[in-house]
Task: structure prediction
Amino acid sequence: MTDHGTRASYNRGCRCDECRKAMNAYMREYQARRRRKAADPEFGAIRELVDLLDGLDEPIRQRVLRYVNDRYRP
Result:
């Protein structure tokens, strides 16, 4: 088993204070990233475009999604 105080240990079921703090820190960072993305008007426009592309062939849709993910990965 991994050391305590890690997300991996938390995900394996450990709920000690150290592991809970590690998970809480990760979730705070994750949620902050999501808020930054949501506040970015360009990202919102791209997300709408991706939703519109839903009817296209899967390979084309995957290329667009890959572009969006690469462009907005923190």
About this structure: The helical segments are 7-11, 17-39, 41-52, 58-72.
